[in-house]
Amino acid sequence: MTVNLKDKLMAMIKTENKKNPLTDEQLAEKLNVLRETVTGIRKELNIPNSRTRKKEIVKAAISAIKMSEPNISAGSLVSKLTERGICISRTYISDLMNEGKNNDIENNTEKFTEEKDVFSKLIGCKGSLLKNIKQGQAAILYPPFGLPTLIVGESGTGKTLFAEYMYKYAVKQKVLEAEAPFVLLNCADYSDNPQLLVSILYGYKKGAFTGADKDTEGLVERANNGMLFLDEIHRLPPKGQEMLFSILDRGKFRRMGEVNTERTAHIYFIGATTENIESSLLLTFRRRIPMIIELPSLEDRSLHEKIKLIHGFFQQEANRTNYKILVNAKIMEAFAFKKYTGNIGQMKSEIQVTCANAYVDKINNKREEIYIGFNEILYQKFFYDINIQKNNIRFNDALFIPNSDEIEDSLLTTKNQYSLPEDIYETIENKYYELKNASISNEKTEEIIWNFLLGYFDKIRLDSQNRNISSLDELKYLLDSSIIQLLKEFLNFVRKEQPDKPINEKVLIYLAIHLEEAIKRIKFKQEIMNPNLLYIKKNFADEFKLASQLAQRLAERKLIEIPEGEIGFIAIYIHELMKSPDRRNRIAIITISHGKVATEMVNVVKKMLNVDFPIAIDMPLDVNPVKIFEQVVELAKSLNAEEGILFFVDMGSLVSIGEIVHSRTGMQTRTIDRVDLVSVLEAVRKADASEESLDNIYYDIINSKHNYSLVTVENSDKEPALISMCLTGHGVALKIKNVLSRYYAGVNIFSMSIMDDNVKIKINNLKQQYNILAIVGTINPKIEGLNFIPYDNNFTKDKRMFLDYLLKKNGSGLAHTLIREKFVLIGLEGATKKEVLETMGKLICNEGFVSFEYINSVLRRESMSSTYFRNNVALPHGMPSFVNKSVIIFAVLKKEMHWDKNGNSAQLICMPAVKSEDVDAINKLFKILKQKEKVEKLLSIQKQAEFVELIRKAYK
Ligand SMILES: Nc1ncnc2c1ncn2[C@@H]1O[C@H](COP(=O)(O)OP(=O)(O)OP(=O)(O)O)[C@@H](O)[C@H]1O
């Protein structure tokens, strides 16, 4: 073959009519050579055949026509093409459209969209994987069996997934049949037995080696007319690599041990390796693999892609669990900046583990959605190597809804009600300019922003109660450690300076987050606007001084200058830090009355008690109460009264205000009618002292107002009891007894008849033995010194609260309900800690004190860290939310038991299953367990009654 011939051929093709290219036959004729010679030269020069060359121009023409007529039929298309001088048959068009192999057809056809769809599911398809995808497509489309391909990339970069997508693409392109096999073999699985690997891959003849007892087909045969994917191909021994040559070159191979038979296999071949191919594969083998696809490591992918991957994986989990998943913004950020040596694979599995942990928490806490907050990741070691880079991206909490497609970028900036209030600067700026635009005076603007700021801190307070993060250390993987260190030092400094001040340390967590944001802002030279600076400097002078000291240290460490406005913000955090964690505005008090009585009364109260929180609403006599109701509902919504609102009203329809507000806002409310100054004073004083709950205040007030004939409850160590009463002592009294025992399991309840001549004597007798808290009944026997609670058809929640209150006041009575002989297990034997805990848990569960989940929550708690107390005592416990009624179960083990990894052994196991509101009651128990001699005594007791007696004494 002369060079001349090649040149001639190229020149002919260059000048041919592009709409009707020359076939090999025509070229051969013109050149006076054999057709095969033309085909050979063409292939050598990498020139496609005439059909393919023509296709380019046909495709371009179809594409142009389809732009204006997307739904054009094949027939009309032929006519239009003929008009353009392209003469082709209808069959050619259909072939073209159906032809998978050469289908890199026009960009605008539906087919193209479909093609793209296969790879478009891969995150990064338009970014870091774009080139790889093009390579992958080219490798598949290359006739007749694609180009052997090697995918190279670190572990977890998505090599297997990419190979699977190439397979899907091949099927979509009809290069492979729909049912074509996809055979995967990970060569690393047989790395210690290369001979086995080769025989699995190529099959073997009976007797080929010891143990080869029958002719066996290999994976290569199974992959015939499909795809063979060899992962970790560098583990394939040289012999195995050589055998692959023959398949790749000629489609021929032999099973191990075969000599005469040569078999045929048509396969699309893809290999993958994490290794450097130069050193790990035979040169001869490398040469036969023309397509090398190098997948980028996760580190080399853009932040945007990383975030999309994170979103995608959380979305997958939401779909899988069918629950909403809410992820805290800082966690999103941490996931994005964490270093993943195992690339995408590691990222995916860490997201799965995080979701699995949070799922357990969701079940335990009966949450509606899976919440991924700081606590979730604290269990995991993987956040230890987070490297939070300084960046300008704002992450927000993200919510993933099962089976929703919305995992697009929008989530990056999605806000929802759970967002941490950390965009304070922007909000203040926005508010400021809005107010300025509305020509609001400076003074009013400052006031509005000040109120906003107060609300912001209320949210922080509320948030710090709900979230379980309790110390700065828990943030160390998420925030700059030098800020955390600085705040710790600052805390010590404040403690030393003001030893008597209570400190709400949780505020530091928010201050830390805030400072991180502030530093970012200062570094990016964004303004920090604080319209209340003057006010803060004047009214929070001490805090401002402390803030300046903190800011100075921060400035030194970060080499930045902290503006005064920022010091102003820090000052409010410090103010919040030093505020007693119990705040008076947890209970709001609102007085509503006709005329101006409410305002007058509240003014007196404010002056007398030097407080500013009771709110007065005066109701003009001619105003429709509905209007007032609306106003009050709005007002209630704007308050941050976590424990509820106590309403004082004067009369009439206002009495139902509490119920209306409750039903519209879900807030707890109580309403006291016939408002009087003394009651309001009393309530405000109690709320201000922050000691009492809403109900305690309410019942104390109604007690003094004699709504019920409430008398003081004796604090005796007698067992508490209730009396149910009706006319006959049967019918209704028994019903009352049933109802009461449902609510107050463990309290003694006696039914009595008012007609019984001896009723008073009987009650007096009972009083000798029991602490009678109240008589609940249809008729008041009017017995001096005894509370009476009227019982009507439904025993309302109000009345139950009243009883709860009585029971609670009866402190020592609690000892009787909490500590019971039947829950003292002396001489318990258990092979393992788990067995002991389950025995104890099941006992109280069977009696209805706790739900079954409680036992699991005990085990889960135990697995987190040891509950060993001291003096051979362990205090295992579970979630209060699974407790129906508070109780403490004790076990004195026959032999002390190894309890934890720290080498502690326990013999007295005390499992308090108490509702949150009864937690105080177990403090007394701790006092006993702290005393070594008391514990020794308890361990030596043989009788349950004695054991109970000793503990109950502590409650006296
Ligand atoms: N671009 C991507 N989009 C979505 N998920 C991906 C992407 N790349 C990888 N993954 C997911 O990451 C995980 C790891 O991918 P894969 O197993 O394919 O990696 P690999 O490189 O084959 O890993 P190894 O070398 O460890 O075998 C898989 O669960 C895969 O679904």
From TrEMBL:
<dbReference type="Pfam" id="PF04552">
    <property type="entry name" value="Sigma54_DBD"/>
</dbReference>
<keyword id="KW-0067">ATP-binding</keyword>
<dbReference type="Pfam" id="PF03610">
    <property type="entry name" value="EIIA-man"/>
</dbReference>
<dbReference type="GO" id="GO:0005524">
    <property type="term" value="F:ATP binding"/>
</dbReference>
<dbReference type="InterPro" id="IPR016152">
    <property type="entry name" value="PTrfase/Anion_transptr"/>
</dbReference>
<dbReference type="InterPro" id="IPR027417">
    <property type="entry name" value="P-loop_NTPase"/>
</dbReference>
<dbReference type="InterPro" id="IPR002178">
    <property type="entry name" value="PTS_EIIA_type-2_dom"/>
</dbReference>
<dbReference type="GO" id="GO:0001216">
    <property type="term" value="F:DNA-binding transcription activator activity"/>
</dbReference>
<dbReference type="InterPro" id="IPR036634">
    <property type="entry name" value="PRD_sf"/>
</dbReference>
<feature type="domain" description="PTS EIIA type-2">
    <location>
        <begin position="817"/>
        <end position="954"/>
    </location>
</feature>
<protein>
    <submittedName>
        <fullName>Sigma 54 modulation protein</fullName>
    </submittedName>
</protein>
<dbReference type="Pfam" id="PF00158">
    <property type="entry name" value="Sigma54_activat"/>
</dbReference>
<feature type="domain" description="Sigma-54 factor interaction">
    <location>
        <begin position="122"/>
        <end position="356"/>
    </location>
</feature>
<dbReference type="InterPro" id="IPR011608">
    <property type="entry name" value="PRD"/>
</dbReference>
<dbReference type="GO" id="GO:0016740">
    <property type="term" value="F:transferase activity"/>
</dbReference>
<dbReference type="GO" id="GO:0016020">
    <property type="term" value="C:membrane"/>
</dbReference>
<dbReference type="Pfam" id="PF00359">
    <property type="entry name" value="PTS_EIIA_2"/>
</dbReference>
<dbReference type="InterPro" id="IPR004701">
    <property type="entry name" value="PTS_EIIA_man-typ"/>
</dbReference>
<dbReference type="InterPro" id="IPR007634">
    <property type="entry name" value="RNA_pol_sigma_54_DNA-bd"/>
</dbReference>
<keyword id="KW-0547">Nucleotide-binding</keyword>
<feature type="domain" description="PRD">
    <location>
        <begin position="478"/>
        <end position="584"/>
    </location>
</feature>
<dbReference type="InterPro" id="IPR002078">
    <property type="entry name" value="Sigma_54_int"/>
</dbReference>
<dbReference type="Pfam" id="PF00874">
    <property type="entry name" value="PRD"/>
</dbReference>
<dbReference type="InterPro" id="IPR025943">
    <property type="entry name" value="Sigma_54_int_dom_ATP-bd_2"/>
</dbReference>
<dbReference type="InterPro" id="IPR036662">
    <property type="entry name" value="PTS_EIIA_man-typ_sf"/>
</dbReference>
<dbReference type="GO" id="GO:0009401">
    <property type="term" value="P:phosphoenolpyruvate-dependent sugar phosphotransferase system"/>
</dbReference>
<dbReference type="InterPro" id="IPR003593">
    <property type="entry name" value="AAA+_ATPase"/>
</dbReference>
<keyword id="KW-0808">Transferase</keyword>
<feature type="domain" description="PTS EIIA type-4">
    <location>
        <begin position="586"/>
        <end position="721"/>
    </location>
</feature>
